[in-house]
Amino acid sequence: MVKMSLEPVQVMSGQVNELQVAPSSNGDSRGPWEEKEEFDQDHLGLTTKPKPVTGRRVRKVEGGVFFPKPENAVTIAVSSRVLFRTEREQKVFEQKGVEEYLRYQVEHENEPFAPGPAFPFVKALEAVNTRLRELYPQSEELFDIVLVTYNHAHVGIRLINTINHHNLFIERFCMTGGSSPIGYLKAWHTNLYLSADAEKVREALAEGIAAATMFMPEKLTEVSESQLRVAFDGDAVLFSDESERIFKAHGLDKFFEHERENEDTLLDHGPLKGFLEALGKLQKKFYAKGHRLDCPIRTYLVTARSAASSGIRALKTLRAWGLEIDEALFLAGAPKGPMLEKIRPHIYFDDQMFHVEGAAEMGTIAAHVPYGIAQKHPRKKSADVGK
Questions:
Q1: Which of 86, 166, 177, 346 has the most crowded Cβ, counting Cβ within 10 A?
Q2: Is 326 a catalytic residue?
């Protein structure tokens, strides 16, 4: 695999790509994002000069508009730097300082940001909410999206204008003015936090909040508009890093021996188990209405574990937890990128940057979960079977 440079939400190849979303939900067709003009410094990467946002979008919900209580919803906290493309503004901040940055934002507040790597994921969450409201008009059990940003409140007008421009239903904001958002995430009962700031992601994980660092790949595979697809690695993501520690310390043979001896011993939970539980809870609401086969949420386990030698323990653990995974791929060390290209998930979670890079090279939006022993001992290409 060719080594690629992955920085959180960086523009690659000097171009800005506009998001393309596929209407298909069967995973059989795919295509790249359209390549647009070279980055226009005056227009924030948009292909034409944007018109000022003059009106607010109106969102009508049968039975009225209501906002769920955080403790009842599945709360997804998304930073502005992964929801939208803000590379130009970040450069202004780094090169000219905070005052010039704020001045720039106010001067351009009627110019909407372009979609970022989390944008298709958020749109898919909203599509699921639409289906949930059709089946359960009064239920508060749905996705609730919170925009989290370190920005000063002065930038809020531009963010609101952008949200209205893209017709997103995001009413909850958390603008911390440079302070850490972690305390607010806990107050929101956050089920998942997505950010471009790896240090804040680590801080969230340390507080028991499922979190991941998002990256922008060089190319993007089209994703479904009608079905949310979420793919997970196993060890150190859904499960603990217990087995990975055995592999790192004693090698592959000892790893297989350990898994066979402990196949009836449940793995401990990993940092994203709770998020999978939340997805499963919403899936069951669709199943209860007879929508198992056309459920708008689909989950995947994509692991380098081998099925016969180490897969049974993972499956028994999920079953004991009462969790269903729609598809399980045991790759026995084969590259994950081609499988993910076929699945076309809205997001893929992995604790190894090697796999994040491989997924990104194939056009998948991947998120890094900086958790477990692999952060101290990065895996080499030739020794990638255990996970």
A1: 86
A2: no
